[in-house]
Amino acid sequence: MREFVRRIDAATPPGRDRAVDALRAWAILGVVLGHWLVTALISDSGTVHGASPLQDMPQLAPVTWVFQTLAVFFLVGGQMAAKSYAAARARGTAYRRWLGTRLNRLFRPVAAVLVVWTVAAGAMLASGVGLESLYTLLKLVLSPLWFLLVFAALTAATPLARAVHPLWPLAVVLHVDLLRFGLGGPAWLGWINLAAGWLVPYCLGAAWARGTLGGRTTGWVLLLGGAAATALLVLFAGYPASMVGVPGAQISNLNPPTLAAVTFGLTQCGAALLLLGPLRRILQRPAIWAAVALANLSAMTIFLWHQTSMMAVTALGLLAGHPLPGLHTVPDGPVWLLARLAWLPVFATALLICWAAFHTYEQRRPRTTSRVVREGHPARTAEVRRV
What we know:
- The chain is mostly helical.
- The chain is 71% helix and 3% strand.
- The chain has one domain (2-386).
């Protein structure tokens, strides 16, 4: 194991910012743990439906402040995409080729999920599973894909994001919410925020790549300003305290994003920028860096299969012959929460099995043969592989 860790550390380019990878890994793991903690499957008269402990235990809202980490992912994604695009332009790589490469890496693992669940859905229908139950399961699996579609659209808009100040999309979100909630405008206006809301941290990431964020001062301004704005919106403007959707609630901060979700995201972005220095020091330890590097290599596999892992454990638990606490019982109290925490290692084990089966779809690389290599220019081989 020590030799394996040493090899990972030695293979890392000296100029790589390991803290960026750590933030990306935490953003993905935060979403996974958040879903496992606030999502439950309940069987009622033979029909499976989803439930959330946030509905009966609103005091758990601070949990969503920790695990709703999408803003950090878009911040890091914007930084990585902007740097990659700048490097591609410097090499003379066309925008179309650059975008195709990035989207291919993003969506290649999705194909495996869609194929497996298409087969599974057909098998469940053939075995008599009701349409309502099947809808619940498919929604859990497919609903996270909205995030990938938005991220793909923002990736395509990277040249524009490099030139847009984050205050512009923030102003759009502000005005959309004023029209929706202050002036009684139509609800469909909120979907404008699906792009504008996540464009805010993405543009921050692009500014970070250009070196124009201003260091720790900007971090403190985002952290304190975002926290103050979010507190005011929740306490005095009627926005929910939970940063994810709660079944039965009139307003969801996430579907579509509200101004409170965006200001909270700015708080997270500020915290992320302030943590860069400590993370860089910690990640000089080869063992810690190896864990972060491995998580990043399989980030999309983890994201795409974590709900399937939770559902597989829930289904296998039915073999016990009676409802298991924290797995099949209604999430309405502290007993359920403690039991659910005990199930997290089991979910992680199931996810590890899914990773073993499907991570190759994410890590597979296109063939590196090219005219440059065939013509006998070995000095360009490494460059071709990177492209």
